[in-house]
User: Fold this.
Amino acid sequence: MNETVDPKIEDASDPIAFQTEVKQLLNILIHSLYTEREIFLRELISNASDALTQMRFIQQTEREVLDPEAELEIRLTVDADEKTITISDTGVGMTREEMRTNLGTIAQSGARAFLNAVEAENVAANDVIGQFGVGFYSVFMAAEWVKVISRSYRPDAEAASWYATGSDTFHLGTAEKEERGTTIIVKLNADAEEFAEEYRLRQIVKKHSDYVAYPIYIGDDEEQTNRQNAIWRQSPSEVKDEEYTDFYKQLTLDFQDPLTQVHFVADAPLKIYALLYFPAKVDQGMFALRADDGLKLYARKILIEEYTKDLLPPYYRFVQGVVDAEDLPLNVSRENVQANALMTRLKKILTNQVTRKLEMMAKKEVEKYIDFWNEFGQFIKEGVASDETDREKLYPLLRFHSTMHPTEWISLADYIERMGAGQEKIYYILGDDELSVSRSPHLDYFRAHDYEVLTMTDPVDSFMLMGLRKYQDFELQNVAAADLELPVPKETKEDGEAEDAIEPMSDDEVAALVGRFQSQLGERVSDVRVTERLTSSVARLVDVDGALGQEMQRVYRMMDRDYRVPAKTLELNPQHPILMKLSELPEDDALSKTIIEQIYASALLIEGVHPDPSGMIPRIQELMEAALER
Assistant:
């Protein structure tokens, strides 16, 4: 870097050494790698905004100020030939001694805290810039040299200048400046000349400083670049529906209207403003701006982080919007901000607001909630599975199909309301799709006695059930469980109703038939037994480990682990005509063996665990040929 004092600086002082901490800071900024070097402009604009805010307060309390009629504004200009950027404001300005203090020592810079954070947490410097008041020094990420010319608002103050190249020293001098405020001239490094273009400055302002409270002008354009009015800081009663929609589309580039929004202001424990949106669809199209999950985090309308994932739990990652924290302490590293108690409270506030909005939709806007559920229901289920602390708050948001309402969505509360007298559990069944579930032999008893069963066919349902074992005072019970205690039937058929009942097999015939299944299927099944739970179905498979075993098998299968069909217990319906006819065939009859194989294969298929469904085709053809021959 050029160590020579800029020739334009007047009455330059001898080189003045930076404090040790500032030297270390400059070394980090100049020699480290940065993912977003553009933030130096955000920091300079933020400093200008602070100076304007101070000036606005002073104008309310003091009469004698320089340029009392000057507009409070920020102006950016570039010189493409000289490769310089100039940032000017009409704020409070600085005297020569204030420049020495503010720009050359640790007193105002917070450099020590910055250095401690970078060293202790091993984080990138640009992750913590803006949190310590060291933003001015970030200019040396892009600057060959920097010159500051400033004049205080005090009428008798003289203009002064400050100059540095990022080395160990800086220079102070006098300057000619008639108007109040500060002007910063940045000579760009050769590898930072992209910033000497007005269009690039507009991009940065739009991204980071769009809602600064003062107008920002670029070049000779008298139309301000920033929007300035932060809709989330307005009272919700003052914002129209179309304004919410317009802001959402600007924020996301989603062509569809949002499903709904949550807009609130809180004063304690933090003063925060938040405007959160629920998109209409999971997939928002190829033009959507969102590159990652998370909310935009602002501090006093200055963008601090574009994708903040720590403001909502992962299962609410579909929510988009902005959060503006007025009092969030940013005097620690990013990691410690995340662990900060107030940050935790902020997350809790936002999470409760989202949950409360969904509860309201579910009760008062049923059709809209069903639209939400069809798109985002999997996220709620994920929360039930993963959030040990708040999962119970999500239970009322769950929706299911059932055997009595296969095309409608019902809540757990709806199910309980329809339960018959004496029913003590909420019954459910897992499957791959609604059609196969509707034909499950596990439902025989429940159909026969008019019990409603929730049908769960979403791949994530098995995970969800790990966090959903009980709702209110009712346990959830898988109807496929081998150890299921059947509910007492609502109605019992009177004697004599089944006049056409077929003469049942004798105990010896049943035992012989069970033995034939065991002999043929061998280790493919853990056991073969008869059951009274089947009415219209021939057989069913149940897990040795009960319902939990079935759920875990589905989880393992979805996780692409080396999955093999476990040995299950085959339960037979001794009253079924197929088995009664089968018992009459000789044990060594080829057709008998084919039928046993098909009964087992059909049971695997209905459970969704058949390893090779197409392999059944030759056997089915064989059975058809045998039927035609007879």
About this structure: The longest strand covers residues 143-151. The chain has 20 helices and 21 strands. The radius of gyration is 36 Å.
